[in-house]
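Now for a typical sample entry:
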Amino acid sequence: MNAPTPTTRALNWCLHLLVAGLLVLAAVRAVPDGRPHAAAVCAAAVAVGAVYAVGPALDAVRASRRGAALWLAAVGAVWLVLLALSAEGVWLAFPLYFVQLHLLSRRAGLVAVTATAVAAVAAFSAHRGTVTAAVVIGPALGAAVAVAVVWGYQALYRESERRRRLIEELTATRADLADAQRTAGMLQERQRLAREIHDTLAQGLSSIQLLLRAAERALPDRPGPAAGYVGQARQAAVDNLAEARRFVAALSPPALDGTTLAGALERLCAATGERHGTEVRLRLAGRPRPLSTAHEVALLRVAQSALANTLAHARAARAEVTLSHEGDAVVLDVTDDGVGFDPAAVPPPGPEGGGYGLAAMRARVHALDGTLTVESAPGRGTALVARLPLPPATHDEPEAQP
């Protein structure tokens, strides 16, 4: 059975209130008229209300059609007693139609509604002492209206569910299309970079190689032309170095766009804490110095990888990132209070053993003549320290914004 929506819950409450109101009306009308069975009518109305109220509170009634059928049989039995005592009991047939059609299968619901209508017509005719067209048409018309309303609602609900599934499929398809477009964009960007590198750096390096070979052939017999070749090679190297720097600037991490390394680390710590529930703090120490793009990219990537390892393996409650400027070096510390590990037991990089994270961090740091140390032990947390040397500071070097 489907979970009730806010609309169906409101309709259910309206139906419950209708049943309660009709039972109260039947009991109230029996008392002032001085009928001989007034007490019995009131007792039967209370019994119907009690049995009816039990159904919505039972999980078996909501979860299975068998439980619902047993409950409806009990409600119908006490209702027949009320119907035999008072003609006003026929009014309850109308809300019972809706309950039966809602809880039972289509065939069983139709049978139950027919039986209820027949019982209502027979009892009302017995109380009136005659069978008239109005006596038959009233319950029959109420049953027809209930069947039309419930079956129409069920058809609308099925159509709504079909549309909902269609919208979900369309949403999933749009997501797949977006992923495909993103992948295509990445491939196009790679092709563009490949063409750029081929047309600039690769061609320039080939020119340098040819010029140096020509200079090698010209030495030592013709030092003048050899010097010219060497000068041309040096100029080609300068030009291609400028191209390489342009590529590096274009491919720097977006996190460093328009901000300093400290700002990027602050956003990284805040985003990591918000997304994963781990307390991550940033500390700055020393007098900040301007860093090259290569240094900023390397330190940011090391911090990202270290925090990723902390979240994936350490099960830490707190982590701290410290960026220290020590004059001749910049140092990044990433510590946590997690479970720790044995650094000597880290598996080598491989498809099955993993181990790419530390290897990639060491490669980045060593590429800038730096050092990477990891201190950890089982149960004692982890401390990772990346140290990158810096050239001596000049007097006119501007101070970096903290």
